[in-house]
Amino acid sequence: MKRYKIILFALLLALPMMAQIRGNNITVTVTPDHQDWNYQTGEKANFVVNVLRSGTLIDNAVIDFEAGPEMYPDVKRQNVTLKDGTMKWTSSMKTPGFYRLRVVAHVGGKDYVGACTAAFSPEKLLPATQCPADFDQFWKKALDEARAYDLDPHRELLPERCTKDVNVYEVSFVNNRPGSRIYGILCVPVKEGKYPALLRVPGAGVRPYGGDIWTASQGAITLEIGIHGIPVTMQQKVYDDLLQGALNGYWETNLDQPEKNYYRRVVTGAVRAVDFIASLPEWNGREVGVTGSSQGGFLSLAVAGLDKRITFFGAVHDAMCDYESALKGVACGWPHYFYGVEKPDMKKVEGARYYDGVNFARRITCPGWFSFGYNDDVVPPTAAYATYNVVTAPKTLSIYQMTAHFWYQEQWDEWENWLLQQMHLR
Questions:
Q1: DSSP label at residue 178
Q2: Is the pTM of this model over 0.90?
Q3: 33 is catalytic
Q4: By Cβ atoms counted within 10 A, which residue in 129, 162, 238, 421 is the most buried?
Q5: What local confidence, expressed as pLDDT, does residue 387 receive?
Q6: Long-range CB contacts for residues 335-340, cutoff 8 Å, separation at least 24
Q7: How far apart are CA 214 and CA 166, in angstroms?
Q8: What is the pLDDT of residue 22?
Q9: In angstroms, rounded to a whole number, what is the distance separating the alpha carbons of residues 176 and 267?
Q10: Catalytic entry in 91, 294, 325, 371
Q11: Is 228 a catalytic residue?
Q12: Inter-residue contact 76 to 116 (CB < 8 Å)
């Protein structure tokens, strides 16, 4: 028996040392000659492409590449052989924007991708989006109609999710009409007291939510909401089925009819979430912020622009901004409604203006933190930077050039620390 125990103990010790898959041995790097990837218009940007195995150049590497303004490459080459595994490329832009060099290497029957996106005078970028004359009236009416109904809040403790420091609840409240509810996960510090609050708004898709327990453990109320009017604690398959069924392509619903656009109830629901937070006896009545990424970045702009109770916001690679740039052949925000459309329906163009993050950003008066990557091909940095530029309130910009539509650990840590600082918890 003693021998078996020794063997078992040895096996347990060995588990952390088991080999793991991490990254690729083949890599493609595309490097600019400016460390910050920023250039002035008319200046030349010099790129170096390397195709590497185990960190060393691969002889006779075969690549495809495309280069030009993001989303509109004007150079495309295929089956180019790099004798020494490396290539140089030079480009420039006469007008403010982003220039992307994207390389696909074919090695051993597999494709490996590398990219670099250089910025040319990005601080001068301006969005093409126009603002409807009745934009403010439109959203005042939407919120007034929603607030005609009592919140009727429900709050149910989730004991299995609670910690010694944080109580976790599934909550719901009325959105814009009776029977239409917003669901979310509320986290409240166990210790009795009054706390600042943070609203987390979601990226695109349909999913369950776990709540922001960690931030709550630092001394804040957190509310993470879903936007689809369904409970957020069901099995994953329920959400997968909805995304492939009734909610498939929800972001395109009634684009030409602003009063019936899917996002009308989404935006009102996000603002009603602030109403819900304001009703909580645990809230300190002062600090309340909103934050999110991608679709959640748009919703952060929308809530901060519409609700003057918001004291800070964080928008990370904010989607749904500056759709109209596509009409001028310039990179536009997700969902790229008019990208590649030769003759767009002007009713859709006009309808989209009520749901463009740019028009909400123009109305923000509280401090904000922006962060995005230059290599993002879902939310182009052209649209993200132009949106940032129109904000006149105090703002911080933190660029992580290499990121595409994701974030690095350091970026997440900086984001979280900034939010905590705004709540006076750091």
A1: T
A2: yes
A3: no
A4: 129
A5: 98
A6: 335/251, 335/252, 337/252, 337/255, 339/71
A7: 9
A8: 85
A9: 10
A10: 294
A11: no
A12: no
The answer for residues whose C-beta is within 8 angstroms of residue 38's C-beta and 6 or more apart is: 118, 119, 122
d(CA 401, CA 421): 24
> How far is the C-alpha of 266 from the C-alpha of 229, rounded, in Å?
9
Number of Cβ within 10 Å of residue 169's Cβ equals 18
Single out the residue of 232, 224, 175 nearest to residue 207, CA to CA: 232
Which ranges constitute the DSSP H helices of 102-185? 135-146
CA distance 244 to 69: 33
The greatest distance separating any two alpha carbons of the chain, rounded to the nearest whole angstrom, comes to 82
pLDDT averages per 10-residue partition of the chain, 426 residues: 50 56 93 98 98 97 98 98 97 98 97 98 98 98 98 98 98 96 98 98 97 98 98 97 96 96 98 98 98 98 98 98 97 96 95 98 98 97 98 98 95 98 97
The tokens for 394 are 């105090």
330 three-class SS = coil
Please check whether residue 12 is in contact with residue 66, taking contact to mean a CB–CB distance below 8 angstroms: no
| Res 17: pLDDT | 54
Strand (E) or helix (H) holding 305: helix 295-306
Residue 366 has a CB neighbour count (10 Å cut-off) of: 20
Report the C-alpha gap between 408 and 85 in whole angstroms: 28
DSSP classification of residue 58: P
The region that residue 23 occupies, defined by phi over 0 for left and psi between -120 and 50 for alpha, beta otherwise, is left
Tell me the two tokens of residue 360.
Answer: 């909400």
Helices 135-146, 262-279: axis angle to 10 degrees equals 60
